[in-house]
Amino acid sequence: MARAPLSLKARAIGLLAQREHSRAELRRKLLRIELQQARRAALAKASAATSGADDDGSEPAAGYDAPTTEAAVDALLDALAADGYLNETRFVESRLHVRAGRFGAQRIQQELAQHGLKLDAEQQAALRATELERAREVWLRRFGAEPARDATERARQSRFLLARGFAPEVVRRLLRA
Fold this sequence. Notes:
This protein is mainly α. It has helices at residues 8-18, 23-49, 66-83, 88-99, 105-114, 121-129, 131-143, 151-163, 168-176. α2 (23-49) crosses α3 (66-83) and α8 packs antiparallel against α9. The model has no long low-confidence stretch (mean pLDDT 89).
C-alpha cells in the first residue's frame, strides 16, 4: 500500500531541517517536487484508465497549473519566513561558515550571488581580513610546506588558489613568502 505524499509544507520543513536554504533555492526545489508529484498522479490516473500508458515526463502533467502552484509555493515561503524557518541572514552566515575554510572571498560572493544574496559590509571586511591566513591553510593542505621550485609549479599553485576564489594580490603575497 502506497503512502500518501507529504504536504508541501512538510517537504519544505524537511529540506530546511537538513540545512539552510535561500528562498530562491527552496522555491526551485519545491516547484520541482510539485511538478514531479503532478506527473506521478497523472501517470497513475492514465495507467488506471488504460493499461500500458507511457509517459516520459518531458511535458508537464495534465492538470498541473503552474501559476497556482507557484502562488502556493510563494505563500508557503512567506509563511515559513514569518515563522522563522526560512531566514536569509542565517543562510548567508551558514554558507560563510561552511565555505570560508576552503574558498576565497570572490568565490563565496559569487556563490551567494547565484542565490540572489550579498554579504554585508562587516562580513565582507572580516572575510577580506582573514583571506591571507585562509589561503595559506588551503595552500599548505594541498601542496605542503615545500615552496615551489620553478615557475611552472608556482603557476600551477597560483591557478589553484585563484580558482578557489582568492584575490590575486593575496596569492602573490603567499607564493612570494
